[in-house]
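Illustration 12: Amino acid ABC transporter substrate-binding protein (PAAT family).
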Amino acid sequence: MKRIQIMILAAIAALSFIKAPPALAQDTIRALSSESVIETVKRRGVLKVGLSTFVPWAMRDVNGDLIGFEVDVATKLAEDMGVEIELIPTAWDGIIPALIAGKFDVIIGGMTITPARNLTVNFTDPYSGSSLGVMASTKASEGMAWPEDYNQPSATFACRRGSTPCAYIQQAFPKAVLRQFDDENQVLQEVLNGNANAMVAAQPSPAFTIYENPEAAFSPTDEKIQPSAEGFAVRKGDPDALNFFNNWILVNTNNGFLEERHDYWFGGRPWADRVAQ
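Figure caption equivalent — predicted structure in token form:
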């Protein structure tokens, strides 16, 4: 009899547990969502976006304002959230630590999705894709064959510090000298001035620069190096943010916005006269 009573009490307790969760679940959901960066942005009324300047993702126009593909994406995202946009230019090698430290809400900066980065931040679904390209100095690299002559102690590469191209150069050209800079323009100038044999960067920056400087630079290879996918980066432990950003990317992929903006900034240079020299 005592065993039966225990079983009945256990069954009642189980039924009570089943009935209780709706209220408890709602409280839990509210508590979790209130911690999301999405709720923080809504309360603040401003979306803070971290990015780094490099053509044509984000760059300064003749008035000193930021323009570019990432700027258009971030601006549209903020508009769809009903908030203002604050763009926070950040050195590339410090952009992930700055995100983790709460300096901004999300990175929208052409960041390639990699397993190593994913250990530190969470990535959304891809919203853009690209590959690496090579630009070589006409003066410094005359007569050099790609890739064998560039993997020598006498060869020098330039890249933007903390970027995917730096890692690629270190792996593919371990014998070469590698000079790293904080700004993409410094990398380009190092090659154009003949101080480095070549640079590797995300396209279309190398292609655009060669087009503008045909006497000073050329492409030693037409190979598409390391085709990649880019995503927004967010702090870990925020499923609401990932859900919202992923759905925003889905909607704006389907409605053509992302493709149209990508074609404008990457398909040619109709914006060239807007950019500060």
